[in-house]
Amino acid sequence: MHRRLVLVALTLLLAAALPAGTLPRKAPEFTIHLTNGRQVPLSQFKGKTVALIFILTYCPHCQKTIGSLSKEQAEYGVRGFQALASAIEDAAAAAVPGFLKRFNPPFPVGFNARGPVLEFLQHPIAARLIMPQLVFVDRDGNIRSQYAGDDSFLNEDRQEMNIRQKIDQLLTEGKK
After folding, report:
1. How far apart are CA 124 and CA 76, in angstroms?
2. What is the DSSP string of 4-45?
């Protein structure tokens, strides 16, 4: 029994040490479910620079990042930028309407089950998922970067500047 516990503990430690997906990589098809029954496929935005954020509606850090992305959507939307959000907590479908009413983001916000999100992120199932999870997809549909909530990229003091720089970089690279 003791040996089995040690094996389980080692497996969990190794899984936690594994990095999330390789970068860059082709973004797999991913669909966000909206509360009105519509679905928003990521592929709908091919040709645009996309920031896809996975959130918990009650998470203050997630809420702040939604605020940053709302500003960037307003500024960069006309240049080909699109923000999208998906809540992944257990009762996300019920929580999203209140979240939308409170924060009023100018981009689609829906929900997904945790499993497909982990698969999309290439995040090990046994590893801790630190929220939010922010993914940048270039105009060609490639995931160019992804950041967990504890990444310095999402540091509260530099978050907005970092997001702006990443959007600028991807929009500039994508010009034909």
Report:
1. 33
2. HHHHHHHHHHHHHHS-S--SSEEPPP-EEEPTTS-EEEGGGG
**Beta-strand (E) ranges in 34-121?**
39-41, 49-55, 81-87, 109-111
pLDDT band at residue 9 under the 50/70/90 scheme = very low
Residue 49 in tokens: 């620079």
* 156 three-state secondary structure: coil
DSSP state of 130: P
DSSP class of residue 95?
H
Beta carbons of 55 and 132 less than 8 angstroms apart: yes
Q: Which residues contact 146 (CB under 8 A, 6 or more apart)?
A: 20, 21, 23, 121, 133, 134, 135, 136
Which residue has better confidence, 17 or 73? 73
Could you give the C-alpha distances from 10 to 4, 20, 116, 129, 158, in angstroms and in order? Answer: 10, 18, 25, 18, 35
Is the peptide bond preceding residue 41 cis, with omega within 30 degrees of 0? Answer: no
Say if residues 112 and 88 touch (Cβ distance below 8 Å). Answer: yes
CA 32 to chain centre: 11
